[in-house]
């Protein structure tokens, strides 16, 4: 038996693995540091456990409660991050590289916890409204809902981000009440295993919410059904093989791929070597070449530069790359670590050989490459390598071959249209960067670049101050790209949660739709009580609780006084002659006066459970209100969201959305909106 630890899979609530199998090596020294396990995994047991234990356990929580668990989990992991940093060192990552993986991963949990608490209901039905009338008199209506699928998510990840790769998929699937089975790439799976052990030890995850597979997935994909989902991050070749699995096709199992791609950076023709933007371009390319030793699916592989700027860009990049110290990240001054494995090192070398054919090598190992640190001679280090292609139309390799390491190729162009054509030769990429000073160039180029890229960064001196950079997928924005990049989408805010939910159209009466969605739907039955809705605590309110106010007749004095207070003397409110020539034929009241007057009609002024009005959504002024018109308002509890929060004094509170309809003396709708309030809890 080897003296190195054997990694374990976490299946059906227990750790499996005692017999050593494949050795896993330190990227820094090539020493064996772990083994995968030889113990066979019963994938039928894993799938059954996810369905019968994981799904019910997650469904006992609602969206808001799962968001709260994500936040608690993020805090738990952040407190123990140094344990993960110590292990991450063996993957060849610098502290900065590991920060992206470790704290980028926990940051994604925080982001989804925050988005979930703001945007998701305290139930397991997400209403995609508004409801729409399907009949003349409004008695028959329809809407859309999103609900948990009742299946599991299989997340297959690449070796380059063993923590972030799992967490960025886990967070939205957990919010969607989907238990997940994570399968990291073996080379760095020891870091993912450490993460999953922490997550399990936290006690925050319901039983069955997360399982871990070390090694092969065996027949796992053959056991999935239409309620399940598969996500994959890795090579385009592997994605192509997985997506044609017979069982996935037969059962229409959703398959989302985020594959490596030949991302590009374009230096626009308006930028000269004297511009700040020129230095920004060079700095961004160099950072993307050397960050994570170039092992990023978003790394810049093609540097598309005006022909007259090729030599200047090449010179500046060589100067920067020559200053990059490569070696053991624990050595002071080292800025680039190793590739993940010797296998990866060999693969990159083979691909560089292909790229060099017919192109010039501007910078490589021959330029004084010598990794620093003890015992690094056998490590998986690779020199930053810069190539030059002077004819990107005739050299297919630069658009087809990706060396997944610190390797990039300068490609010359003439005119912005040629630059965009070269960018599209990548056949679909995750991200592109356009560096320009001119908004007109951005306006012209971005729509065309967006057709073949999942994300486009426009970089100039203003954005550079706070830009997160070309290679940083953000939880709030979509990650993924068309064609070679996999054709899938991840992240993108709550969009990612929707990917793991099932959408259904629902038809029925407004009253039935209100019951199904948990939200008041206009036309549904309401409840009117002697107690004003604003006098009720959060727990006592029910959707549909409603108040129809008394009436108020709008006078000329109202318009004059509101104009004096607001400073709004728009001619439609004050110039009777000009107003007669408009479509209304007369002076009308300010829309915001109508809004204010409605508040005066429905607000209960005494202290009570309603703590604050903090927002207004969906405001529409539907019809004009003239002098002499009489208005009234209907206030109805539309939606309640229990965010499980307390204020500084320990008083609980929830969010209530109120539907407001303002009508005139002919019962015509004149204004419509939602008001959001914080409401105190009784308990």
TrEMBL record:
Residues 544-654 form the MaoC-like domain. The keyword Repressor does not apply. InterPro entries: Ald_DH/histidinol_DH, Ald_DH_C, Ald_DH_N, Aldehyde_DH_dom, HotDog_dom_sf, MaoC-like_dom, PaaN-DH. It holds the Pfam family MaoC_dehydratas. Residues 466-488 are annotated as: Disordered. It comes from the Bacteria. Residues 26-448 form the Aldehyde dehydrogenase domain. Keywords: Oxidoreductase. PANTHER family: ALDEHYDE DEHYDROGENASE B-RELATED. NCBIfam families: PaaN-DH (TIGR02278), PRK11903.1 (NF008868). This is Phenylacetic acid degradation bifunctional protein PaaZ. It comes from Duganella margarita. The lineage of its organism: Bacteria, Pseudomonadati, Pseudomonadota, Betaproteobacteria, Burkholderiales.
């Amino acid at each position: 038996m080897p003296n190195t630890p054997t990694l374990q899979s976490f299946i059906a609530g227990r750790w499996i693995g005692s017999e050593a199998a494949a050795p896993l090596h330190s990227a820094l020294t090539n020493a064996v540091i772990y083994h995968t396990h030889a113990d066979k995994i019963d994938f039928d047991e894993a799938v059954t456990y996810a369905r019968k234990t994981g799904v019910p356990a997650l469904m006992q929580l609602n969206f808001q409660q799962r968001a709260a668990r994500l936040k608690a989990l993020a805090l738990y992991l952040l407190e123990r991050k140094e344990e993960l940093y110590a292990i991450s060192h063996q993957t060849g990552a610098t502290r900065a590289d590991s920060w992206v993986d470790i704290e980028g991963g926990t940051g994604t949990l925080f982001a989804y916890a925050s988005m979930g608490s703001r945007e998701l209901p305290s139930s397991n039905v997400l209403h995609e409204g508004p409801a729409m009338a399907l009949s003349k008199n409004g008695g028959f209506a329809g809407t859309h809902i999103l609900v948990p699928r009742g299946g599991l998510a299989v997340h297959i990840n690449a070796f380059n981000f063993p923590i972030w790769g799992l967490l960025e998929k886990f967070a939205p699937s957990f919010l969607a009440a989907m238990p997940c089975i994570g399968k990291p790439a073996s080379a760095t799976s020891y870091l993912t295993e450490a993460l999953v052990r922490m997550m399990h030890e936290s006690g925050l995850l319901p039983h069955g919410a997360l399982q871990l597979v070390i090694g092969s997935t065996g027949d796992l994909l053959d056991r999935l059904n239409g309620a399940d989902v598969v996500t994959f991050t890795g090579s385009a070749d592997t994605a192509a093989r997985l997506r044609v699995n017979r069982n996935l096709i037969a059962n229409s199992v959703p398959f989302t791929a985020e594959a490596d791609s030949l991302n590009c950076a374009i230096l626009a023709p308006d930028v000269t070597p004297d511009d700040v933007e020129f230095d920004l371009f060079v700095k961004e390319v160099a950072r993307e070449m050397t960050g994570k030793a170039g092992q990023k699916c978003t790394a810049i592989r093609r540097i598309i530069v005006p022909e007259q700027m090729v030599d200047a860009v090449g010179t500046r990049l060589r100067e920067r790359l020559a200053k990059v110290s490569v070696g053991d990240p624990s050595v002071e001054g080292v800025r680039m670590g190793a590739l993940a494995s010797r296998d990866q090192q060999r693969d990159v070398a083979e691909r560089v050989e292909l790229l060099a054919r017919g192109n010039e090598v501007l910078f490589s190992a021959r330029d004084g490459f010598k990794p620093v640190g003890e015992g690094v001679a056998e490590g998986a280090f690779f020199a930053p390598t810069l190539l030059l292609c002077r004819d990107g139309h005739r050299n297919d390799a630069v658009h087809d071959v990706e060396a997944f390491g610190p390797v990039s190729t300068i490609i010359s162009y003439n005119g912005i249209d040629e630059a965009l054509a070269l960018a599209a030769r990548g056949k679909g990429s995750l991200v592109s960067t356009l560096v320009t000073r001119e908004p007109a160039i951005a306006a012209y180029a971005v729509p065309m670049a967006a057709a073949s890229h999942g994300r486009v960064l426009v970089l100039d001196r203003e954005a550079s101050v706070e830009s997160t950079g070309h290679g940083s997928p953000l939880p709030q924005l979509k990650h993924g790209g068309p064609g070679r990049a996999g054709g899938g989408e991840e992240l993108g805010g709550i969009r990612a949660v929707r990917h793991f939910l099932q959408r259904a159209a629902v038809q029925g009466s407004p009253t039935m739709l209100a019951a199904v969605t948990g939200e008041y739907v206009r036309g549904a039955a309401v409840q009117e009580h002697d107690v004003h809705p604003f006098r009720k605590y959060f727990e006592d309110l029910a959707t549909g609780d409603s108040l129809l106010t008394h009436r108020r007749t709008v006078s000329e004095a109202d318009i004059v006084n509101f104009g004096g207070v607001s400073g709004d003397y728009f001619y439609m409110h004050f110039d009777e002659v000009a107003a007669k020539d408009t479509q209304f034929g007369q002076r009308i009241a300010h829309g915001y006066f109508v809004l204010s007057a409605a508040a005066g009609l429905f607000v209960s002024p005494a202290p009570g459970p309603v703590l604050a009005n903090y927002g207004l959504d969906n405001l529409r002024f539907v019809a004009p209100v003239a002098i002499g018109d009489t208005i009234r308002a209907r206030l109805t509890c539309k939606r309640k969201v229990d965010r499980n929060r307390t204020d500084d004094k320990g008083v609980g509170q929830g969010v209530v959305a109120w539907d407001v309809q303002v009508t005139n003396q002919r019962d015509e709708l004149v204004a419509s909106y939602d008001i959001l309030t914080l409401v105190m809890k009784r308990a």
